[in-house]
Amino acid sequence: MNLSLKKHSVLPGFGPTLGYTVFYLSLIVLIPLSALIFKTAGLTWGEFVATVTAPRVVASYRVTFGAALLAAAVNAVFGVLVAWVLVRYRFPGKRLFDALVDLPFALPTAVAGITLATVYSGGGWIGRYLEPHGIKVAYTPLGILVAMVFIGLPFVVRTVQPVLEELDAEIEEAAACLGANRWQTFSRVLFPTLLPSLLTGFALAFARAVGEYGSIIFIAGNMPMVSEITPLLIITKLEQYDFAGATAIASVMLLASFIVLLTVNLLQKWSRRFAE
Amino acid sequence: MHVTGALKIKKGQKGGGGLAEPALVRWLLIAVALAFLGLFLVVPLAAVFTQALDKGVDAYFAALREPDALSAIKLTLLTAAISVPLNLIFGVVAAWAISKFDFPGKSFLITLIDLPFSVSPVISGLIYVLLFGLQGWAGPWLSAHDIKILFAVPGIVLATIFVTFPFVARELIPLMEAQGKDEEEAAMVLGASGLQTFFRVTFPNIRWGVLYGVILCNARAMGEFGAVSVVSGHVRGYTNTIPLHVEILYNEYNYAAAFAVASLLALLALVTLVVKTVAEWKIQEETM
Amino acid sequence: MGGRKTRPYNNRVKGTDMSIEIVSVSKNFGQFAALDNVSLTVPSGELVALLGPSGSGKTTLLRIIAGLETPDGGKILFNGEEATDRHVRERQVGFVFQHYALFRHMTVFDNVAFGLTVKPRKERPGKAGIRDKVHELLRLIQLENLADRYPSQLSGGQRQRVALARALAVEPQVLLLDEPFGALDAKVRVELRRWLRRLHDEIHVTSVFVTHDQEEALEVADRIVVMNGGRIEQEGTPGEVYDRPATPFVFNFLGNVNLFHGRVHNGLARLGGMELASPEHAATTDSPAVGYVRSHDIEVERLPSDSSAVAAEVRHVHTVGPLVRVELLLSESGETVEAELSRDVADRLRLKTGETVFARPRKLKVFAGDYQI
Hints:
The structure holds 3 protein chains of 3 kinds. Chain A is mostly helical. In chain A, 75% of the residues lie in helices and 0% in strands. Chain A has one domain (45-275): MetI-like (MetI-like fold). In chain A, helix 6 (109-120) crosses helix 8, helix 8 (141-166) crosses helix 10 (182-211) and helix 9 (169-177) crosses helix 10. The radius of gyration of chain A is 23 Å and the shape is globular. Mean pLDDT of chain A is 88; it is low at 1-7. In chain B, helix 5 crosses helix 7 and helix 12 packs antiparallel against helix 13. Chain B is globular and about 65 Å long. By secondary structure, chain C is α+β, with helices and mostly antiparallel strands. In chain C, the strands form 4 sheets. In chain C, strands 6-7-8-3-9-10 form a 6-stranded mixed sheet, sandwiched between helices. In chain C, strands 13-12-11-14-20 form a 5-stranded antiparallel sheet. A 5-stranded antiparallel sheet of chain C has the order 15-19-16-17-18. In chain C, a hairpin with a 2-residue loop joins strand 11 and strand 12. In chain C, helix 2 crosses helix 3 and helix 2 packs parallel to helix 4. The two termini of chain C are 40 Å apart. The model of chain C is unreliable at 1-15 (pLDDT under 50). Chains in contact: A-B, A-C, B-C. The interface between A and B is large, with 108 and 107 residues.
């Protein structure tokens, strides 16, 4: 590999644009992120392990990762359903609903948080129908799940939808000609094609839910050991000026998001394995 | 990570004829999907505006005219006015370098650009505390020179730039890669300079993609809560953005005022969705 | 098309002298040698075809002439002047891209005008000047009434002509076309290539076009350069490369060909049961050899007229339009050959599947050695 690769193109500006890209990326992202890693490296291994495995911290992992996994699962099921309905069927208001799917991307998390908390509280629009049945959502771990489903909702829909749109009708026609019924066609032909994008959407929704803060803290109740999420714990440590503790926990979360990111990249490679 | 909100290029309706599900199944699926969307999207959206007007129109506007609210609005606009153009310039520059040239490490670079999306907002704030806080790298020097970054406007702007960093770039990179460089080469052969080529040939082809990226970047810049919350210090009337102001009002049980201010952000979200949808149509039209 | 009465291009200096010399040009993409020490001269005012299969380096060579790629080694001379390092903007070439690369957000008019409007203010014609020039070119390509359309509203053939007009607007010294008809329907393709030939006869600008279609090259070009694996196999007029192919590759690439395997010894070739003189191999002793015969150079006879005719069994007879293709199994060697007969010859012979006839090559070229294609 020589560095005169830009010779392949007569278009100008390779040096300056790539230079600026790397400069700005380093300034805004890489240097600040490396601060986290260096700060963590300042801890001894013993201190680090003690901090990140303290019972309250472990409980917060359980709440955060558990709820995020469940929320991603809910979104996987309903995401495929919503994508299917939006791509395949005609019904009034379809375009409106299609546009609305992105609301969780556009609505600031704090607004989502206070709204969900209000709607699902005992006197709220939805809470008042659940409370009599003994289902408490707001200020319980269930509230965390609701908030995570909300913010993760667009991911599966938006990863599965384009794949479904691109699917060649001929594939289904071929399956039908070979005698498959509708369900067989879906489960044996369509679903395997959708699976990589579904898993990608699942992983993205999961990653987003794990890191989420704004929409959750209003509805969660934030009881230590019960409904306290890890990002909140980081902030609590910061407010107690426990920078080392906050950094240690943050580095565990960062590692988790890197693993998810890596998984997503592998999934996308895998999904392209049949591409021409 | 190249899927979130990525441009959707749609094809015509498919299926039908003997390949459609029975009507009953079809309507059942539609009903379940819409119930899900209604429960999780429509109800909360309606609730924001209902709650905002709970105490009447006068109380609504009073909440918006209150000085702390006004200063929060001002700070939010300022933050967006700085961070969005910076990320726009970066996005266009990075997309040019990545989509028009081949170089080793390209896909790694794209992954790095996407990085801020996979970092928790709280961590995004934390890293600036570690850099500029009194315990941090630059903290002692900054405090010796009486420069305030953390718990001040610069910190809020920096954290916002970080969380909105990838928006424009990630919209433009796939779009410009799909468009290839034939048109640019044609312009060069016809004698256009680099800047002429960009402004007369490249930019008209990506303008809707730029708008798309900018509007999403702006929505996030104005609405960011977690990262800003960590670096702001919550000084009322000074370092509060709109989302932080909403939080304070809500925690003071001033619900009507909290939702009144929140409704501004909800309106922004609706405008964002409309512009985004229009931009998608336009991009789709032009890609065909 | 046709029917042009005006000579809309006559304000340019007719037949501007511009020859292109390519001297020992090489180009690698990573490990792949796209061009391997290629030298070529394009005489002024000629229409030259670069013909070859995909991966033969023809498009790379065209892009190097245009200045869109930089060669790793070698020189490009325009009119004897070194132009290797001249930027694409200063080369004054017109380039027609394979997929046209029309600016999709500009009308036909604006596309054609683009090259004029980006000229430095001093050289730029006035608004009226640009308008006249563009309309003149639109007349030339017979699309004057579509000036306000966008590329997406045009057919493939129309886009192709707009791309050509856009390239010609800046009065290039050289016109380069990359697979100019590749993306068109068979019928439009034939019409357009005849039109291009006529256009070239009118404006005489030195032109090079890339194609993988031998018929196109044979019909349109003054000279054909056959390329393969980054090298030039042969160059010459269409007649020369078709009638006197220099290598088995050229033989194979231009037209249908039959192979007769055998050996050659002291000027005598034994190929697929035939025995014939091969004077150009008088000095060759007992070497493997392959005889190449075009399908239309195989005669089918009821009775052998001389010693070069060999017995063969008729396997299939297909009538394809004006031609009849006969698949023959040579009795002695077991090789299959295809003969192309005209309808009346075939009607006279009244061939039936399974019967034995005699195949006689009218013209055969022997290549000695282990040629592999």
